[in-house]
Amino acid sequence: MILKSLVMSIALIAAFGYFFKKVKRLHSVMMSVDGSSNLAPDRLGERIKVLFIDVLGQSNVRRKPAAGLAHTLIFFGFLAIQPHSLELMIKGVIPFFEAGNFLPGLYAVYLYAADISGFFVLIGFAYALYRRLVIRPSYLTLGRDANLIILFTSVIVLSFHFINAFQMAMPAQTGHFNYISVFPVSGVFARVFGIDTLSSTNLMIGYEIFYYIHIGTILGFLIYIPGSKHLHLLAAAPNVFFKRLDIEKAIMKTDIEDESKETFGLGKISDFSRRNVLNLYACTECGRCEELCPASGTGKPLSPKKIIHDFKQDLLDQSGMLLDNHKNEILPLMREESKLTDDVLWACTTCRSCENVCPVSNEHLDFIFEMRKHQVLMEAKFPPEMQETFNNMENQANPWGFASDTRADWCKGMDVPLMAEKLQTDVLWFVGCAGSFDDRGKKISQATARILKKAGVDFAILGPEENCNGDMARRAGNEYLAQMMIRQNVETFAQYKFKTILTGCPHCYNVIKNEYPDFGAAYDVVHTADYFDRLIKEGRLTVNALNSGIMTFHDSCYLGRWNNIYDAPRRLLKKSVSGQMVEMDRSGSKGFCCGAGGARMFMEETLGKRMNNERAIQVVESGAQTVVSACPFCAVMLHDGIMETGKEIRVKDIAEIMDEATN
Ligand code: SF4
Ligand code: SF4
To answer: Which pLDDT score is estimated for 227?
Structure first.
């Protein structure tokens, strides 16, 4: 017994000591990065609630029903057996310790529940193995690390049941806790393996063997965690706790005039923020982000999962230089041998599917935006075709390079008022570049103007005073150009009096609503889908339902995932069409990007399949005769994609449908 105490004491001190040393190092790495220390525990009550819902409630994990249920069984079952394992460790050091002597009734209930929970863990593992060996989803990491973890945890749970089986088969001693009826599952183990027929000596030997297997595996697991993908067991909860609480988000504003700054954006691991590092630690490598990524899905080399994984690897590989404060020697993230290439970085459409589905609330785009910012501002590296787009935005305030003084030509003869003439209105309609210059966008703007007039809305446009909203330049990493355009618009807004900014473009909507406040311009911003819905509710528009056959709605990423607007356009369609509404498999928060976001509209798409063609196939498969969007960029991309399919499917904007359906 003394020998066992000694062995256990040394083993526990060594394993826990090693574990804490490793964790301390990981923490030091996180605290050594230079990016802003954005881990503020503001809105504490909400964060605690999120922790309960997302971590204890497993809400994010359960989005995939079968895999989510398996994870929930494993998570709670594994947690449930830990107090018993702790008791066994204490018993190893203090042989006469018996938790059952303190509160025997409660202890019995706990053991009963833990024993059943252990069985649930085994069910969860059975499904996990089936998924890995039979289903084998392509986005799941099937490497040695994952298999080793399953082996570790299976051994821990199986040995837990065997320990219980031996324990309950031992003759009960007077004055000690009686285990005979508290192990419903382990009791089956005892009968099936004939444990209940063994002699006392053999029971003792069997118990000790499984005891050492159980504790040894737990300690091995403890040592293994900090260096494995199961680091998420430690980092996921804090990562969720510090997550962005609002769905809407702004790209981080960079103070480009700060002359003390040596670098902008994300160039090497020392530029990470602490939140970035926590994201890397928290990744479970589940692959859900990759599964829904439209770039991965159409054969581009971009995988959000691999970005996170490769950055984590780079961080750990170069952490020595970070900790020794030799930051000048740290190699750039994008270098010859790195997996992060230009094709990876620029394939992202910023659709946010990855962030939306990540069970640990990682924010992949914080990496991608800051990387692009660094490439453009510090390295002057970006897809060559973007040079002309940047020039056009700089010289003519629109990405196509049309003369800026022709911005209001789309409404010639329509008697659309200008802000410069009215000075004051209820609604300032920010038409946007697509709505002003693109042929398809102009038709959508004309429909919108007619609707506003029908409803008697007091509105005006900026016309030639309007600049590109800055979204495109910002998402392409050209923060300098973006800020220039944003500031010009902000100055123009300040000259006039109005209550609301209206826009039919989700990109204008998002950037003005969520990013302009960082530039001192916080306004009530409304998208036309919401605004038309409001006009109908107020009785200012009368709808005569159109019969347009089978119809489906394509969610714009910047309306849906970026701003949580899914219902208003569907409500509008239900009111304005009498035909059948169908949903595509990829709709709502899982909507498939049209391929235009993140400035991809102005970049070549030469790798893999074209994203808009893929989306068009999904439209065809839905059986719809009309596909409706609420974004002029989506309308263009869908139209081109549908043309490729050779099918006769109408592509309409919500404004065009409303224009036809109202009087
Ligand atoms: S934002 Fe969209 S395109 Fe970009 S990595 Fe995430 S899922 Fe892929
Ligand atoms: S980033 Fe999130 S969704 Fe992607 S693999 Fe990691 S945990 Fe899964």
So the answer is: 86
